[in-house]
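re the bet — no i am not wrong, look at it urself. input seq straight from the record:
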Amino acid sequence: MPAPTRLPALTRPGPARTWAGFALAALVLFALAPAVLSDFRLNLLAKFLCFAIVAVGIGLAWGRGGMLTLGQGVFFGLGAYLMAMHLKIADAGLRGDTVPDFMQIAGIRELPGYWAPFASPLVTIVAILVLPALVAVLLGLGVFKRRVKGAYFAILSQALTAAFAILLIGQQSIGGSNGLNRFRSFFGLSLADPANKRMLFFVAAGVLLSVVALTRQLMFSRYGELLVAVRDQEERVRFLGYDPANVKVVAYAAAAFFAGIAGALFVPIVGIISPADVGIVPSIAFLIGVAIGGRTTLLGPVLGAIGVAWAQTALSENFPSAWTYAQGLLFIVVIGFFPAGLAGLATLRRRRTRTGPAQPIPEPTTTMEPVR
């Protein structure tokens, strides 16, 4: 029986190469991009960086852990709505009102009780950092302890995303189907000022580099090796005395943590959050970028997410109805013929270039003598 096809392993680059890569990325994000892009394009790139932050977490959970996470829209939406609630309360305070503008239109005269804690910036930041990861831990323990995995876990996570979007639509106290929008300030800074919008791009770029650095440490640590072992041989890891459920929960919570931060940054950058931004379609779009870029690599998800988002923006301007079909076709081609993604294909090509073509193993020669 032939051996099963495995994704290419992640080789650890040297310190010099790692520092050079981070320096080049910082140069591009903090110097080159602001110099050559207009304010509109720079804000668009900041939006793409938020998607890349989500993609890094998916790469860790799916690429290294084998968990097909189709529900990242839930954690992205949690971070986004928590930030949006704080911004709407702050804007109402600037106008001298007690409730946000959309509540006044809906006839709501008092701030709901669950809105009140998010008037504090500190509480909002802590909630953004803790709540998505906490929800992921609770869900992960409930799912992985029961040994739910594979397609069943993917369907369950997608169903959770659909339920979350439907729940948001039915809640008029958080905007309903229209969501929350028209934010005027961000922690005391005016969002109408182009300098503050540019500052948000730098914040998103810094967060992305920090997330990539943290993920790199996880991938190349002993935990990263254990996560790959759980992906490939879960039962063998269990026989060695480890609990695969706990290993998976850590990666799943880390991905949720990244998604929550990305959602919180998305709100002031884009200026709106609605159920359409956190439902099934956005969750699948996150996954498509990771798959195309290369889910087993460190930078593949980042480049894939940014590339797919840029292609969607560029092509949809000229071919609005054709982009969806092109995106689906690209996803099918990559999954069918390049399961490791474009970055994985490049890695495999470099490895073959270093080692050279495989040489056939010669047959052993024996001298046959007649039996006497």
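see?? The beta strands are 180-181, 185-186, 189-190, 272-273. told u. also Confidence is low (pLDDT under 50) at residues 1-5, 358-372. so pay up
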